[in-house]
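Weekly modeling sync, notes
Attendees: S.R. (lead), two postdocs, one rotation student

Agenda item 3: backlog of single-chain predictions. S.R. asked that every request posted to the team notebook include the full sequence so nobody has to chase files. The rotation student volunteered to paste the first one in as an example of the format we agreed on. Action items at the bottom.

Example entry:
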Amino acid sequence: MDAAANGFKAARLYRLGGMALVIAAVLQVTGFALHPAGEQLSHVDQPLYGPAHVVMFVSWVLVMAGLPAVYARIADRAGTLGVVAFLSSLVAIAYHCYLTLYEGFAVGVMAANEGARSLLGPDGPLAHGAGALGIVAMASLLAFPLLGIAILRSGSFPRTSGWLLVAALPGFAVGMIAAGMFGGPIGPEADNWFSGMLPVTTLYTLAFAGYAVAGNRLRAEASTGTRAVASGRAVSV
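Predicted structure, as returned to the notebook:
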């Protein structure tokens, strides 16, 4: 009875976690589709700026809900790397929850106040997350390839999932290079989608696609009551 109950609980964790990751990917792409062409004040004033970031915020919350199921699956095989990847992913998710919620609500309120608008300009002290956490913000991006490598090492998910996460950071770098080839400012100060949004869109699309592939495997296996192992055999969940 206890074993059956534990098996049911594990299957439920995998199914719900997997569904959360798949839905998260859909919402993340939707958020970027709604996002204006950049992050300048002219873009902040657009009506979809806030909602786009709120949708992204929800996608990160769903990743936070689904990631424990991924770690539970890889923990036995990924070793110390799996622990580091999981913890660093939690830090990255927490930072992005803060950032998207800040952009979705606080920035819009300040932009509506003429006296506060100067704080949100390109060099404003409260622009783009107010610079909180500093270098930690960039270091958190390493969580994507770390988790990807842990997934590849564990052999518990389709290798596509791991490679998509590994490719997220190089994809961001390639996007930055491609945007820079056209001249002008890159990133938040850009005035067009290609220079302003291409690098980050590439980064997060690849990462969330990796989450979704892993999530879909979790969901499918929980539904059938089996899981694939490295040897190719199927065992009960």
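Discussion: group reviewed the output briefly. The CA atoms of residues 89 and 143 lie 5 Å apart.
Action items: rotation student to repeat for the remaining queue; S.R. to check formatting next week.
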